[in-house]
Write a structure and sequence with these properties.
By secondary structure, this protein is an all-alpha fold. The chain is built from 13 helices and no strands.
Length: 277
């Protein structure tokens, strides 16, 4: 799989599948992209490809949440829109303030195992949290709830921290109804993904780096199409199954994945820089 150029079609499809599924399952798409980019030995054109994959996953959100989106656009001063705004403010502040730190963490992947463990623990705690008799819907959700969910989304800019996992876990810990929590998390991801993509594009333009540098068109297209289709499947699955899902099964997977990364860091250094004590 390793190559000096960007990536081949098979790698593009694999990364598209990873982004599409992992963006909406609570296991961190960015963390998995970093992991597999390390495994594939990819260095060139990665940022451009990541931006394209994230935008591709929005296709499913626009389709499955089209009624919610239209309702918000028609009434931008009603509570649903204001809750999203209240959540986006802390997300944006965290993203801008710690942008340089996040970039270094992304490029090295050194803390990926720790971040996966943190996501696993948070999912475990959210599933074990005591539930009240009445879960909060749109009417009972407060702007403080939304702000805290926005903080969770901001923290999830770290590659191994799942955005959907952290926002869903925070919502459940705040007493939100599961179905409403996942829809709110998905709606919140739309401006977050668009904002992050726009910010990354600005950085690329500012540095004078070409969007098409080291990009091969067919792997690029294959990845985008695959990410869009996989995203649709993941969104449909989460919207239909969230009330029955046990988040612990995702935490087990993340614990195992973090163990794999740690073993490589401690003993082999094949994919990640070896930890030297």
């Amino acid at each position: 799989f390793k190559g000096e150029k960007f990536l081949n079609i098979l790698q593009g499809i694999i990364l598209g599948l990873i982004q599409g599924f992992c963006e909406f399952l609570p296991i961190s798409s960015s963390g998995h992209l970093v992991l597999f980019q390390k495994i594939f030995g990819l260095k060139e054109g990665v940022l451009t490809f990541d931006i394209a994959l994230h935008i591709a996953t929005l296709f499913g959100l626009f389709y499955f949440l089209r009624k919610d989106i239209l309702a918000i656009l028609k009434k931008p001063l009603d509570k649903p829109a204001l809750l999203i705004l209240a959540a986006l403010i802390p997300t944006a502040v965290i993203g801008v303030m710690f942008n340089d730190v996040f970039e270094k963490i992304f490029s090295s992947g050194a803390t990926l195992s720790i971040e996966f463990i943190i996501t696993a623990i948070v999912l475990w705690l959210a599933e074990n949290a005591k539930r009240t008799n009445k879960s909060k819907g749109i009417d009972d959700t407060t702007y403080i709830d939304a702000g805290l969910i926005g903080v969770a989304q901001g923290i999830a800019i770290l590659p191994g921290i799942s955005r959907s996992g952290f926002t869903l876990a925070c919502s459940l810990l705040r007493g939100l109804d599961r179905e409403f929590a996942i829809r709110f998390s998905f709606l919140l991801s739309i401006p977050a993904i668009l904002g992050a993509a726009a910010f990354d594009c600005y950085k690329i333009l500012k540095t004078g780096y070409s969007f098409t540098a080291n990009i091969e068109i067919w792997p690029f297209i294959a990845g985008i199409i695959t990410a869009a289709l996989a995203g649709c499947i993941a969104i449909k699955f989460m919207l239909k199954k969230i009330s029955k899902l046990n988040l612990k099964m995702f935490s087990y997977y993340l614990f195992a994945l973090s163990a794999f990364i740690l073993v490589d860091q401690l003993f082999f250094g094949k994919f990640f820089e070896k930890i030297i004590f």
